[in-house]
Design goal:
The chain is an alpha+beta fold. 26% of the residues lie in helices and 35% in strands. Strand 4, helix 4 (90-97) and strand 5 (101-104) form a beta-alpha-beta unit. Helix 1 packs across helix 12 (324-337), helix 8 (171-180) crosses helix 11 (275-282) and helix 12 (324-337) crosses helix 13. The longest helix is centred in the middle third of the chain and has 15 residues, at 250-264.
Length: 555
Amino acid sequence: MKVLVVGGYGTFGGRLARLLADEPRVTLLMAGRSLAKARALCAELDSRSTLVPWRFDRDGDLDAQLGEAAPDLVVDASGPFQAYGERPYRLAQACIARGIDYLDLADGADFVAGIATLDDAARARGVFALSGVSTCPALTAAVVRRLSEGWRSVRSVTAGIAPTPWAGLGLSVVKGIAGYAGRPVKLVRDGRPAEGGALIESRRVTIAPPGQVPLRSLHFSLVDTPDLQVLPPLHPGLRDIWFGAGPTPESLHRMLNGMAWLVRWRLLPTLEPLAPLFHWAINRLRWGEHRGGMFVAVAGEDADGRPVARSWHLVAEGADGPFIPSMAAEATIRGLLDGRRPAAGARPATSDLELADFEPAFARKAIAAGVREPVAEAEPVYHQVLGPAWDGMPPAWRAMHQLPEGETKTVSGRASVERGRSLLARLAGTLMGFPGAGDDVPVSVAFSRRNGVELWRRTFAGRSFASRQEAGRGRSEHLVVERFGPVAVHMAAATDGETMRLVIRRFSVLGVPLPLWLGPTTTASERVEDGRFRFDVEIGHPLTGRIVLYRGWLA
């Protein structure tokens, strides 16, 4: 199978080639105006696919160039699609005229929706022309279908993408965003066509796949994606739809929000001339975790007409997240190779892929995803935080954390305790009431629960210290908040098989958030071994080193 990738040495085209590097059945013509750049990319990649550098000018004689290349499929990965001029579908039309299948990675809402004007011509030639074969709307639409399976109706869709700050964005993407910043965005609100302010409206969301360390609570701003226009017709009962982007660092994001307001107030005509400056800043002024993610939240009515809500969360580690926009094209090409061909016609790519088509690509990368449903506040704290990952933990572990409102229980066992040796460590341990050092000492933990807050009183060889735990809210959503007097530690509960570990994500004193480097360090895990609940906890601080380490079992 021969695939012509227009923009092949660009950001998304190059990632598509890397995703298909293990596929020997495909020949990729990595095309663009610069043959030298195409050759450099082909030489760089170690691929089982056949890579051919190819010169292609989308502003030239398309029919002649397509005739020379003779591809089975054309992938337009160039853009910005919002800037394709008066004849935005020249390439798609040329492909249809020659009987060549076509798909693009477009993210422009009007462009993706408008591809349907070519439907009759594509059907007549027996080819497909799919637009938006990318995260938006192909992946989003597939997720909404998965979440709403068996429902009577979908009433609202809220989604967002949070790229890692270290990924870098192509200039074409930045130009597209700068071009519509501050301008009206078409969407559906209260069941009616409406407009929102691009990069002006905002929401805060925590992306948290069950059992994984979540992203930090992020600031999302409304962006103009195809989903806003092409999803409502798929769900006639849809009353509200909103899609945001949550780029970091947040300080730069908020500066962009402020500049969008200047366009809204007509103090600036557009931010597009500033796109090169934004591109420079985004790719150089960056800090924070090298992680990104995506969420899709839906609400509606189940088969019996009862209100229901679900959300899908994805976290991608390191440099793997930036591959996601190219995975829909990868899945389509792999499907073609396996004999699964999209139906003829021209349309947005909202129904040609299912979430199951993306999941093998996720599995080949450090990408974790999962579904959450609301958990009642009457449920145990760790059930609220873990969501469905709670059910994957051993019964003995769940029984230890099962504590109904208003009840108490006490468990006991044996433990060993080590204390830090520095003067500051000993002082900190004494102030916090941590137990003294000892081997094989008796330990008991008394649990009680009032108003959704659990009190844990730990007693080692007659010496006690206590903390309070509750499910986080607001910026600490999907975290366990543990309080030792005025100190609050906000922790992720991550599962690995039948082991749960706690990872500090936030830290505050007297309710004032402080930088993590000022706070305590914790290595904590719980598991079931030989039928016993086992714990292993080490607490320290950069200034003191280890303060206390205690490990043991309870029954």
